[in-house]
Amino acid sequence: MSSGAPAKKEFLCILPDFPGAQAKRLEVRPSHLEGVKPLVAAGTIVAGGAMLESHPAEGEIPAFKGSMMLALAENEAEVRAILENDIYAHSGVWDLANAQIIPFKSAVRKEL
């Protein structure tokens, strides 16, 4: 029996940072993480994290190059709206003009 609601689809989001956004990213990161919590709880964001220039040595601050998210939504417009509402987008961290929102289909997924 169908609920009538459109099916959710997966979208892989590749979100590059603007050059020189490292300090701003670190400044607003706590707000970003708080803002993502309800999206994770709702099952809208099922994976995500920072993309790095390289893995840092122990004790070093990573050199960030952007973010990756795996979102569940009805369509790309819904995903874009979620991303545009994030503090990383409106504080100048993410370069959404160069973001990729790619239709995706998980083959395997393992919980951390």
UniProtKB/TrEMBL annotation:
Protein name as catalogued: YCII-related domain-containing protein
Ranges for domain YCII-related: 11-104
Alphabetical list of Gene3D superfamilies matching this protein: Dimeric alpha+beta barrel (3.30.70.1060)
Membrane-spanning residues: none
SUPFAM superfamilies: Dimeric alpha+beta barrel (SSF54909)
InterPro entries membership: Dimeric_a/b-barrel, Sec-metab_biosynth-assoc, YCII
Organism annotation: Penicillium cataractarum
Pfam families named in the record: YCII (PF03795)
